Amino acid sequence: MNPTVGVATAMESQPIEITQFLFSQALSEIVRRRRAVRLKARAATAEIRVSAIVLGSIPFFIIGALLVVSPGYLEPLISDPRGNLIVGAALLSLLLAGVTMRAMLRAALSG
Questions:
Q1: Helices 3-13 and 15-69: angle between axes, nearest 10 degrees
Q2: Cα(26)–Cα(85) distance, rounded to whole angstroms?
Q3: Is the distance from CB of 92 to CB of 85 less than 8 angstroms?
Q4: Which helix (DSSP H) or strand (DSSP E) does residue 49 occupy?
Q5: CA-based radius of gyration for the chain
Q6: Which of 26, 52, 94, 111 is a Cys-bridge partner for 101, taking CB atoms 3.0 to 4.6 Å apart?
Q7: 25-59 residue pLDDT tens
Q8: The pTM is what?
C-alpha cells in the first residue's frame, strides 16, 4: 500500500482534529515569536534606560559637588530672583527630558 494513501485516509477520517492541531501549533509558534521579540526589545531598551538614569542624575551630582567644594558658588541661584528663574527652568527641562525619554521607551517596547 502506498504510504501517501494511508496518510490521506487518516486525514479524511479525522480532518477536524488535524486542522485543530495544525492551527494550535501555528498559533503557539506565533505567540512564542512575539514573546521573543518583546524580550529582545526590552533587553535593547535596558541600556537606554540606564543611560537616561545616569544622564538625569548628573546635574544633581554636580550640584552636590559644588556645594561641598564651594558652597557660596551656587548662592546667587537661591538668593537672586533671576537665579530662582534659572533653577526653575533647569528643573522643568529635566522633568520634560525625563517624560520624553519615558515616552520613547514605552513606544519602543509597545511598537
A1: 80
A2: 60
A3: no
A4: helix 15-69
A5: 30
A6: 52
A7: 777 888 889 888 888 877 877 888 888 888 889 99
A8: 0.58
Inform me whether the pLDDT recorded for 2 exceeds 50.
no
Nearest to 37 by CA among 103, 97, 111: 111
Q: How many domains does the chain have?
A: 1
Local structure of residue 73 (DSSP, 8 states): G
Structural domain that includes position 65: 3-110
**Rounded to an integer, what distance in angstroms lies between the CA atom of residue 69 and that of residue 106?**
39
Q: How far, in Å, are 4, 10, 26, 92, 104 from residue 7 at the CA level?
A: 5, 5, 21, 70, 52
Q: Exposed, middle or buried by CB within 10 Å (0-12, 13-18, 19+), for 41?
A: middle
Residue (of 62, 45, 59, 61) closest to 111 by Cα position: 45
Q: How many residues does the chain have?
A: 111
